[in-house]
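Open question from group meeting: does this chain pack into something compact, or does most of it stay loose? Before anyone orders reagents, we agreed to write out a predicted structure and look at it together. Recording both the input and the output here so the notebook holds the full record.
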Amino acid sequence: MIVNNKQCRTQTEAVLQHLKMGRPLNQQEATELYGTQRLGAIIYNLRHKVGYDIMSLNCTGKNKFGNSVSFVKYMLMNSKEEQNRIENGNS
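Structure tokens returned:
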């Protein structure tokens, strides 16, 4: 389920609602779902101007040519217990 863009006035609101639903988000998903090209800037503002605790998860995968690529997924942390669970690989 994606966030209904008609309920969100800004891309920041859409990204925040996505994260609040407990779903991670990467740049490609943010572009496809919400039309944002600057997810890193939105995450920065949510962290430093609003105060949300958002974790960066470093990931690797393959691009459409089969080459290895690195990317970041962002996840909103609800509690210290949840953060510890994720960092220890117990999702």
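Observations to bring back to the group:
Residues 11-77 form one domain.
The chain has a mean pLDDT of 87.
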